[in-house]
Amino acid sequence: MINIQKALDLVLSQKQFYGAEEVPLTEAVGRFLAEDIFTDRDAPPFDRVMMDGIAIQLKDLNDPLRPNYPIQGIQAAGAPQMTLKAPDHCLEVMTGAILPQGTDTVIPYEEVEIKEGTAYVKIEKAIKRFVHGQGSDSPKGTLVLQKGKKIHPGDIGILATVGKSRVEVAKVPTLAIISTGDELIEIDEKPLAHQIRKSNVYNLWASLLQEGIHAERHHIIDDQKVLQTQLKILVQKFDVLLLSGGVSMGKFDYLPTVFENLGVQKLFHRVAQRPGKPFWFGYHEEFNTKIFAYPGNPVSTYVNHLFYFKQWLYASLGNSWTFETKELGEEMPGCPNLARFISVNLNSENGRVLPLNHNGSGDLFSLAQTAGFLLLPQREGVYRKGERFSFITIR
Amino acid sequence: MINIQKALDLVLSQKQFYGAEEVPLTEAVGRFLAEDIFTDRDAPPFDRVMMDGIAIQLKDLNDPLRPNYPIQGIQAAGAPQMTLKAPDHCLEVMTGAILPQGTDTVIPYEEVEIKEGTAYVKIEKAIKRFVHGQGSDSPKGTLVLQKGKKIHPGDIGILATVGKSRVEVAKVPTLAIISTGDELIEIDEKPLAHQIRKSNVYNLWASLLQEGIHAERHHIIDDQKVLQTQLKILVQKFDVLLLSGGVSMGKFDYLPTVFENLGVQKLFHRVAQRPGKPFWFGYHEEFNTKIFAYPGNPVSTYVNHLFYFKQWLYASLGNSWTFETKELGEEMPGCPNLARFISVNLNSENGRVLPLNHNGSGDLFSLAQTAGFLLLPQREGVYRKGERFSFITIR
Q: Which residues form the MoaB/Mog domain (chains A, B) (predicted)?
């Protein structure tokens, strides 16, 4: 049995880039950028008016203003640049407009009164220029979004403004989620006393959807021959297989044997952690398939998926994933033999987390109350109140 | 000018439920539940075996174990319940199986050795029962997900397990995003010197997509007559209009006038906040249309959207939205006249946030670096280092 750091290192050693593809901007959220994004012009692209008002010529900001400025015309946003013809006149200007040639300062409407084509100034000195200088945010050619960044909605406006109607993103791996376990039936079936409906594959499927991955769902019965026949096909067909169940010590936990028969290279089986200890991970060299075989309990499966698969995915397609940290809200006894992922709730007042009481890794319903999992490393001594630990959000 | 609390109260006073609809489970992530979800059976539905091993009869857990138990057979997961025929025998049992009739305790494989049809026990006393009792997580009829909850991937497994292949969720409002401003051109166009490409509408569109809303995008030129004609149609057609630009003090900021002409009830215009001060909000009584008119600057638009619209949406369709809080990483001077939304970065080591330096609300590119916005309320005194404030994430 290895510890979680070693297990994570082995998982990350299998990181894999699946090439790039172009998608329309409107489909890019949640994908990983496969190109650096640079500004294609200065930002702002011109000296931009920051307030609605009048634009005047005022070489030194400390010079006193004239009492009034006759209005030559209006510089609207979206109109070509105008030119101030007489330096004692002004042009009305609108927020977002290009600053007229021959002017350098904007006096906001709040500080002027306009009567019969003349602007009467209520202040003696200009407050500031109110001009957003060309290139002052970033000159043309500035790197604004880095290859590997996961694209969030706020990035979409940036991509739009630099003209990326299509964006180069990392291709996602093809992926199958495979449930095993003869006690499992479909959601819309009526269970007999000893049966339960499938749930893990749906949790995984929904979580993958948020990463832009449309996974296929498969079920294979607990029969070594059938498993071997079916998995032989799936190993060749998909980049990644996620399995739930069939890796514990049970009589019908055939997966480790089947994988061996199929020529899959095991990297580890069992990790010193709770829940999720029986996690099995390996890869098929010839077909370049990565295989994450999670134990069957719902919380075990989900924790392993969020911790190992998600970090593998981020490392493969983009930049690495940094966990937030949260303060533990109460002291807890140490656990020298196993790292623990504890279900926690978030106190929004003080930002600390408190362990949720639930019935162990089989308690699927606890996931509804959980804000996420706090990772408590193996340790002899106590986990102290107020100490910070990595926090894995499930939202 | 009103303060943000008053503005928020007015926005939330317009909350609106748009009815419920049934969607397949696989389309339910991110939607708001419109029904309470109860368990349809006990959880677990039967006394469930927690470890692979042997099941025996052991009335008192403190009683010594027999040195060996002849094996009667195997109780697999997914098989109907078996019955132990002789109390000095055992049945092999698999994790997830129903506990055989006549047994009450599981001895894990780790603690036994199996030779020629008999299990030889290596320990003198049972460690624990290793039985997950029927109904011990939650008895049948337990409320497991509450109406109004936003469905996250972890909830999907719960819905699956209680048999919800279709789920009742809140309908989302129909929504149009309208850009104004003659300086704006399409993403795939080449801008002239005084033009810029649209960006706000794409930020908003992408953000709405994450809430399950497929918004229409419209652009209307800065012409009062055209605005009035077009908006008249849109006000009747959509539940919600989001506008960007056209609400400041400029000559071509016709929106407040146009809305008045169209019989839209203004609830406020201008809020004591930075950025986003010129925010305008109202509704059309007859057509029951809510109108969020954001100022044109990218950061202003986005902050107002995340703060006001998102809270309105959550209040309308589901449970209210609670902000996380974060500690400010450095002291900052107070701001008595305006509440401030400051762009911040997150220090994952200590969980504190630090303000990002950027060029004000026009600096779209700053959104790429921002983790979110910290809401600093109006205050005479300083904002103290280590003090907690509401944090609005943009991830």
A: 176-315
Contact criterion met (CB < 8 Å) for B152 and A394:
yes
Cα–Cα distance, A155 to B394 (Å, whole number): 10
pLDDT tens, residue by residue, B13-29: 999 999 999 999 999 99
Contact B367 A158 (CB under 8 A): yes
Do B161 and A199 make contact, defined as CB atoms within 8 angstroms? yes
Average pLDDT over residues B116-125: 97
Cβ distance A235 to A284 under 8 Å? Answer: yes
Using an 8 Å Cβ cutoff, are A338 and A328 in contact?
no
Evaluate if residue B361 carries a pLDDT over 70.
Answer: no
> What angle separates helix A153-161 from helix B200-209, to the nearest 10 degrees?
150
* Beta-ladder partners of B113: B120
- For A167-182, what is the HEC assignment? EEEECCCCEEEEEECC
Q: pLDDT class for B359, splitting at 50, 70, 90? A: low
* Residue B357, C-beta contacts closer than 8 angstroms, at least 6 positions apart: none
Query: Does B209 contact A74 at a Cβ distance shorter than 8 Å?
Result: no
Which strand (E) or helix (H) includes residue B12? helix B4-12
Cross-strand partners of A176: A216, A241
Among A187, A201, A300, A346, most B C-beta atoms within 10 A, so best to mutate, is A187
Q: Can you tell me the mean pLDDT for A336-354?
A: 93
What is the Cα A102 distance to its own chain's centre?
A: 46
Overall average pLDDT of the B98-116 stretch: 97
Q: Give chain B positions within 8 Å (CB) of A203.
A: 153-154, 156-157, 160
Flag whether pLDDT at A244 surpasses 60: yes
Buried b (16+ CB within 10 A) or exposed e, A363-385: bbbbbbebbbbbbbbbeeeebee
